[in-house]
Amino acid sequence: MGVKKEILTAGTGPKPVPGQKVTVHCTGFGKNGDLSQKFWSTKDPGQKPFAFQIGQGKVIKGWDEGVLGMQLGEVARLQVIFKLLVSFLRG
Asked: Which residues form the PPIase FKBP-type domain (predicted)?
């Protein structure tokens, strides 16, 4: 698995299945290589929740892997392995 997942709040609903559209709030950390520095959030002014079709390779692999295992209502911290992010960005 290319992602580390820490559950912050357990969910109670169903888990998504590949191909399903999911909508999530997310916050990106790692500005200038500092994991304590936020660089973006769907909760920032003017932003909205992020929607994508899960398991289709449309987002970084760590998101597909991490969100597939989540339940509705769950809040989790996903730490994506750097090489997965780089390979996604390079295409």
From this structure: 19-80
